[in-house]
Every structure is written in C-alpha cells, then in structure tokens.
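Work Package 4 report. The design task specified in the project plan requires that, given a folded chain encoded as structure tokens, an amino acid be chosen for each position. We show below one input record used in the internal validation round.
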C-alpha cells in the first residue's frame, strides 16, 4: 500500500510537471522566426492530441451498442466549447507577448470564478472556498501591480492595471472554472464517469474540428494562403516544440494524472497539482530567461495557496505536526482514504484539481474531478 501511494504521488507530480511545460513550449513557438497565428497553432495541436484517441469513438459495448452515445456527445460538446475558449484565449495572450509564467499563475485564478458559478446555480459554497477566492483575488492584484520587474518606471503608472494579455489569461481561468464546475456535476453520473476516456476522445475530436473551422475562417477572411498563417512552418525545431506541448501538456499529463488519481483522495491530488505554475516558472526561467518582478511571484504564490485553501481549508493549510512528528502508519492512511473517499464529495464551488480531465479516477479511487 505504501509503495502504491508513493507511486501515485510521483505520477501526480509528473503530471504537474508535464502541464507546467505547456505554456513555456507554446511561448517558445512564438519566439521563433515566422511564428504561426493562434488559429494555425491551435489546429496543429488539436490534430496531434485528437488523432490517437479517434478509434475509441467507434467502440461498442458487450451489447453491441456504441459506447459513445448521445449523452456522451452532448457532454463532450459542452466541454469542447469551454476548452476551445480556454485554448484560444491562452494562445492569443501568448501571441500578444504575454509571459508564460504569468499565464500559469493566472490560470489558478479559476478559484475565484468557480464559487461564483456555484452561486449562479444556487449551490452552496463552503467558507473555505470563499477564503481561497479572496486569497486568489489578492494574488491577481499583486500580479497587476507588477509591470516588468521591481524598479520598473512603468510600474508606477500601471498600478492595479492588467496588461491585455493578462486579461486574456484571466479569461482562460474563467473558462477553466467552467470546466471544473461542469465536471463536478458530470462526475455525479456513474454512466459518464465510466466513459471518461471516450468522452475525452469525442471532446478532442470536436476541438480539432473547431480549430480547423477557425483556421479556415482565417484563411477566408485574410485572402492569403496557408503559408501566411505560419511562415516558419518549415522549421523542424518549431514542430518539435508544438509536439512537445501536445505530448507533455496533453497526452502524458492526462495519463499520469489518471494513474495518480486512482490511489489518492482529491485533497492530496489538488495540493500536488497546484505546483504546476512553479514548474512553469522554473522552465520559463531556464529556457526563455524571462525576468519578472517580485509582485508576480508573490501573487503567484498566493494563487497557489488559494487553491490549497479552497481544497483543504485554512486549519489544514496552517496545521502543525503532532507530537510524534506527524508520522502516521501509511497503510492505515491509505485504508482510511479508501474507506472514506468512496463517498467523499468535494463541496460545490470548491476548486477541483487542475486539468480535471481525469475525473473518472475520482469516482473509483478517491473522489476527484484535466488541462492549456
């Protein structure tokens, strides 16, 4: 049991690292000569992510009926709308020169929007969720105060003002909050929870079609050829970055999250996954050499803490170790998790783990709700 729990934690940590690599990889694409339009890049990534799962759309159950029924298609279509908005706004923000680190941090602002959606649906929201939302709001404010680093002359005239790219990133967070909220509702259905991967395959296929339509509309409106949408498309290095964003931020991130989520409760998974922006910041600093001010990192830290508080609450966040050093028998911990998490239901409006695409795992190994 102890080995299983440790493997789950390593898988979840790997998922956070994979998702953290997404924004830096996309940013690197836009730093190369002849970068693509947001439509062209989204279409290329959409096809890379969708094609491996397309065969699942034709699978049938033991009775010969299609696994992906009309209810699954409606669910996939709704999630595809939110995912389209999320990817589009993120890519547009990066096209406009937005920071990959800021993008990763501001995505955590979903904890602000999620309880608002719960209120609109007349669902109760726990105090810990509002506490997390308040922390996140302060974090966004700190990021807004920072303009290009400590001591920047522009900072004095830019107090409490977000850049256009940052506003797009906040729109990305709102789209992510919609996905989180609806996944929490879908997860209450045993039928939908049992068909998570098939719904994911249908959603990815719909997204690829939507991105293709977007690219086609761009071509029609511009009157230019396809080469004008991506002048530097002949560079193998650029395609390597695109493939890395699809493989790491898409396929591997989802796979590791699904593996890890089967052996741990939602609260623990969320704490690990909130480290995603830290990995994004580290990779961005290492490969892109971005220099950001203290306000961005302080605000980002608050946003990460907000996600943890919204999940486990303030007492758990600030709890001190017990007299025995906080040690606890691992087997007993796993046993209690499995016994208690079968009926554990995160409160409506609480922030589910990032990239809640693996919400099937929450139905089977610790209730949890999957990423740009």
């Amino acid at each position: 049991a102890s080995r299983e729990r440790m493997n789950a934690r390593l898988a979840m940590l790997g998922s956070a690292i994979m998702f953290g690599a997404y924004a830096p990889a996309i940013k690197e694409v836009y730093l190369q000569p002849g970068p693509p339009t947001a439509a062209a890049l989204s279409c290329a990534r959409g096809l890379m992510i969708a094609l491996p799962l397309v065969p699942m759309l034709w699978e049938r159950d033991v009775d010969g009926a299609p696994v992906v029924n009309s209810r699954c298609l409606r669910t996939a279509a709704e999630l595809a709308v939110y995912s389209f908005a999320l990817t589009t706004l993120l890519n547009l923000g990066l096209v406009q020169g937005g920071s990959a680190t800021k993008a990763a941090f501001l995505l955590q602002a979903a904890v602000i929007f999620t309880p608002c959606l719960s209120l609109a649906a007349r669902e109760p929201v726990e105090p810990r969720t509002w506490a997390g939302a308040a922390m996140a709001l302060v974090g966004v404010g700190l990021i807004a105060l920072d303009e290009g680093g400590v001591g920047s002359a522009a900072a004095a005239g830019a107090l409490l003002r977000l850049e256009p790219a940052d506003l797009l990133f906040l729109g990305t967070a709102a789209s992510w909050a919609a996905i989180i909220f609806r996944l929490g509702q879908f997860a209450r259905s045993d039928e939908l929870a049992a068909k998570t991967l098939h719904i994911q395959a249908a959603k990815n296929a719909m997204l690829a079609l939507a991105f293709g339509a977007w690219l086609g509309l761009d071509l029609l409106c511009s009157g230019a050829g396809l080469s004008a949408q991506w002048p530097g498309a002949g560079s193998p290095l650029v395609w390597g970055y695109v493939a890395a964003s699809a493989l790491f931020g898409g396929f591997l991130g989802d796979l590791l999250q699904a593996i890890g989520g089967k052996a741990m409760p939602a609260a623990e998974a969320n704490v690990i996954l909130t480290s995603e922006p830290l990995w994004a910041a580290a990779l961005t600093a290492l490969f892109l050499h971005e220099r950001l001010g203290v306000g961005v990192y302080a605000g980002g830290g608050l946003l990460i803490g907000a996600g943890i508080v919204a999940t486990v609450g303030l007492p758990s966040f600030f709890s001190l170790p017990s007299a025995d050093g906080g040690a606890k028998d691992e087997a007993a911990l796993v046993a209690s998790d499995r016994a208690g998490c079968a009926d554990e239901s995160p409160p409506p409006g609480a922030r589910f783990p990032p990239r809640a695409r693996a919400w099937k795992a929450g139905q089977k190994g610790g209730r949890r709700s999957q990423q740009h």
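The radius of gyration is 21 Å. Validation will be extended to a larger panel in the next phase.
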